[in-house]
Design a protein that fits this description.
With 188 residues, the protein is an all-alpha fold. Helices cover 62% and strands 0% of the residues. The protein has a single domain, classed as Arp2/3 complex 21 kDa subunit ARPC3 (Orthogonal Bundle). The protein is globular and about 45 Å long.
C-alpha cells in the first residue's frame, strides 16, 4: 500500500517538477522527461505481485502500472504549457508503465536496469514520433538525441538507485512468492 501511495504522489508531482524546474535547465541536447522516468522507475514496484504457488505474474500489477502511466501522462498533457494533442503522452506513458511492470522483479539489478533503459528508449522514440505526426513538430526537435539520451540514462540511473535500496528481509525464511520446490518442498 505504501508503494502505491508513494507512486501516486510522485506521479502527480512529476509534471509540476518537469514544468517548473527541469525545463529551465540548459543541458546539452535537451532535458530529460522526468514524468517518463518516474513512471518507468516506479511501475515495477506496482507489478511485483506474483502468484503464491507458481511464481507467475498475476497481471494485476501490469494494470496498475498502465493506470499509473495513464494518470501521469494525462497530468503531463494538461500541465501548462499544453501546446500539444491531449492524450499523446497519456498513451505513451500508459504503454511504458505496462511494459515496465512486465520486467521481472526477481531478475538481477543489471537486467532490470537494462530493461528499464530499453523501455525508456522505446517510449522516448514513440513520444517523439507521435509528436512529429500529430502536432507537426519538426522531426529534429521531436527526436532530439540529447533529450532521448538524458531520459534513457536518467531512467537507468534511477532504477539502479532503487535497486540498491534495502529490502525487507524474511530473516532466514524463503518468501512464499517462490515456487514450492525452491522452498525445499517436493516438485508438484
Amino acid at each position: 500500500m505504501r508503494a502505491v501511495i508513494l507512486s501516486v504522489l510522485l506521479v502527480l508531482a512529476a509534471p509540476v517538477l518537469q514544468v517548473t524546474v527541469v525545463n529551465g535547465w540548459s543541458l546539452p541536447g535537451g532535458v530529460p522527461d522526468i514524468v517518463l522516468i518516474c513512471v518507468i522507475a516506479l511501475a515495477p514496484a506496482l507489478g511485483s505481485r506474483t502468484g503464491s504457488r507458481t511464481g507467475s505474474r498475476t497481471g494485476a500489477g501490469a494494470g496498475a502500472g498502465a493506470l499509473m502511466g495513464f494518470a501521469a501522462g494525462l497530468a503531463a498533457d494538461v500541465a501548462p504549457p499544453a501546446d500539444h494533442t491531449i492524450g499523446r503522452l497519456a498513451l505513451v506513458l500508459c504503454l511504458a508503465g505496462w511494459v515496465s511492470t512486465r520486467i521481472p522483479a526477481d531478475d538481477g539489478a543489471g537486467r532490470r536496469v537494462a530493461g528499464t533503459a530499453v523501455v525508456a528508449l522505446g517510449a522516448s522514440l514513440a513520444g517523439g514520433v507521435l509528436a512529429a505526426l500529430l502536432d507537426g513538430t519538426p522531426w529534429a526537435a521531436a527526436l532530439a538525441p540529447g533529450a532521448i539520451a538524458w531520459t534513457t540514462g536518467g531512467a537507468a540511473l534511477v532504477t539502479a538507485g532503487l535497486a540498491l535500496l534495502p529490502r525487507r528481509r524474511s530473516f532466514g525464511r524463503v518468501p512464499a512468492s517462490r515456487p514450492l520446490y525452491a522452498r525445499g518442498g517436493r516438485r508438484a
